[in-house]
Amino acid sequence: MGFVAIDRPPAGIPQEVIARDNARLMDAHLADYAALAARLDRQNIDIEDIVAKLMTLEVGLPSWGMVSGGTRFARFPLAGEPTDVFEKIEDCAVVNQLSGLTPRVSLHFPWDQTSDYVALRQFGEAHGMGFDAINSNTFQDQAGQKRSYKFGSLSHSQAATRRQAIEHNLSCIEIGRQLGSKALTVWIGDGSNFPGQVEVTDTLERYLESLKVVYDALPADWRLLIEHKMYEPAFYSTVVQDWGTSILCAQTLGDKAQCLVDLGHHAPNVNIEMIVARLAQFGKLGGFHFNDSKYGDDDLDSGSVNPFQLFLVFNELVSADIRSKGKFKPAYMMDQSHNVTDPIESLLNSARAIAGAYVKALIVDRAALKSYQADNDVIMAHNSLRLAFETDVRAALAMARIRKGGAIDPIACYRASSYRALKAETRKFDPHLGGGIV
Ligand code: LRH
Ligand code: MN
Fold this sequence. Notes:
Layout (H helix, E strand, L loop, with lengths): L14 H28 L4 H8 L6 E2 L22 H15 L4 E3 L10 H10 L3 E2 L2 E2 L23 H21 L3 E4 L4 E2 L7 H17 L6 E5 L9 E2 L4 H11 L3 E6 L9 H10 L3 E6 L16 H17 L7 E4 L8 H20 L3 H9 L3 H12 L4 H10 L6 H8 L1 H8 L12
Helix pairs in contact: 1-13, 1-14, 2-10, 2-13, 3-10, 5-6, 8-9, 9-10, 11-12
The site of 6-deoxy-beta-L-fructofuranose (LRH) has 10 residues, from loops.
């Protein structure tokens, strides 16, 4: 099977644009790096260890987030936004090039459907992009679809509709196998809008029976990621409504089934970092959809509303990683909707926020924290976290980007490249295209 020639030049930002912009900022960066190194050294932390660990962090990009998002009220298209999965991968490659953090994209089917997945895999590889978890979609009806998902999918009252949803998930696994993916994320909108509309135990039994068929079809080295969500599109009950239901399903299905935590899928003020700790404690934390929210499932940029919560989540992740002696490998992915920003800029900002939360969690003095906790020295225990969170780690993040060929200031560099304006000249503009959700 030769390389299928696709007449598209490797995308990305010309390296000289990055080199020029980094040269502009290098002296200030090196001064900041030395200052941070000295500060961390006083805490017996070697900044080089931190940067080395940071360079192992990888976060998957949401293909559906590469196009301007919207709400039920409106979507405001962006000139030069991607019009197909290939152009989405081109833009993902730009985020990876400038951030050095996002070498994989998570695709969603049928939104990213194409005719030749071997060619798509090669196109991805040519742009330095691999494929993270595959997302199935049984929360929308596609043109020509035989049975509607109006009243559910994997938990539907009628076996034929459940079978249709199972078949779709099996076809997603097949596509993922060709792309080199190693996981299937299953989020369903199944639920009810009225008390009495469904028998909630029956719906979960049907869901488990259906998902078992999907689970049994997983390749040996794959994971099934169960994504819970409190509400929407259903507004009274949701079949997989919370982490409790999710972990019970994952334990019922088997070792390859784990829970995916989408930060926006919880009631306001829920202690998400504790859910993360619990799922990790029982070996069922399989992955994340990072984003932020103030009210509902707002899918805002990671760290843009509540960066302290993102830090506390990574604090639990670092603690779980230490407990698991490094065997702990959750799939980090973003799931965001960029309604008023250039998706590339939002994803660059979000990648930086995620990296920042991770580095701040790495510099927590865990020995001191443990002894303050043992002594119930509440203030000093809390301040052990505050000190790390309040440390300006941007120079460490920039050094990791530089060492991966990225930009000291990704947004400034992206704007200096005029990438989006150039794409607006070559890509067709279709205001009705949309990213899938709207
Ligand atoms: C559901 C969800 C899920 C995706 C969809 C795009 O709200 O978080 O992860 O399938 O967004
Ligand atoms: Mn999600």
